[in-house]
């Protein structure tokens, strides 16, 4: 590898490389060597920017959760427009088209990463808890607008939607389900709209 070459946005370059390795080969293949090779940089580059590999992975997960936050803004803005079923189907499909399932697997198989994340993410699994919160917030807005029944427990419904959609994606392996499969889940879970 060339030395003395300035790397622009090295953290983002490493995070993008980690995501590609994770999606292509799974969490067990995610090593510092695999990430730096994928990024096309010397191994020392990663260790100059992060205390250790678990610190890198923790920041990678939090970065991807941050990206998800930006994506859920669209769901929040959709409250009151379109249909609740269409809005949720689109949001859930987009969420799980990302690296979400792979990141959940990564967090659950790496004890050091899980422990590291506990310092900044005290409860639940990043991605899953953030997704539940975003969907619950959206459902709460729709309930306030009268587009779903006032009696709907939005936290429970959000957990059902995220959990069921997650299971659909996990069980499909490399072939993700189509949006229609997600739509069927939403139709079954969301109470009939007024």
From TrEMBL:
Residues 31-50 bind DNA. It holds the Pfam family TetR_N. Keywords: DNA-binding, Transcription, Transcription regulation. The keyword DNA-binding applies. It comes from the Bacteria. GO terms for molecular function: DNA-binding transcription factor activity; transcription cis-regulatory region binding. The keyword Glycoprotein does not apply. InterPro entries: Homeodomain-like_sf, HTH-type_TetR-like_transc_reg, HTH_TetR, Tet_transcr_reg_TetR-rel_C_sf. Residues 8-68 form the HTH tetR-type domain. This is TetR family transcriptional regulator. It comes from Virgisporangium aliadipatigenens.
């Amino acid at each position: 590898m060339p030395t003395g070459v300035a790397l622009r946005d090295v953290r983002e370059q490493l995070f993008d490389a980690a995501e590609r390795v994770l999606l292509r080969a799974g969490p067990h293949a995610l090593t510092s060597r695999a990430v730096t090779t994928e990024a096309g940089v010397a191994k020392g580059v990663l260790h100059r920017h992060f205390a250790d590999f678990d610190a890198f992975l923790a920041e990678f997960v939090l970065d991807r959760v941050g990206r998800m936050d930006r994506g859920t803004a669209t769901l929040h803005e959709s409250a009151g427009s379109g249909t609740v079923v269409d809005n949720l189907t689109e949001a859930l499909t987009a969420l799980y088209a990302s690296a979400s399932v792979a990141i959940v697997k990564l967090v659950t198989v790496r004890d050091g990463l899980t422990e590291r994340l506990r310092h900044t993410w005290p409860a639940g699994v990043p991605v899953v808890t953030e997704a539940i919160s975003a969907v619950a917030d959206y459902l709460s807005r729709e309930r306030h607008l009268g587009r779903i029944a006032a009696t709907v427990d939005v936290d429970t419904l959000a957990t059902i939607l995220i959990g069921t959609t997650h299971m659909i994606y996990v069980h499909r392996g490399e072939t993700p389900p189509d949006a229609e499969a997600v739509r069927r889940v939403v139709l079954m879970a969301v109470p009939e709209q007024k």
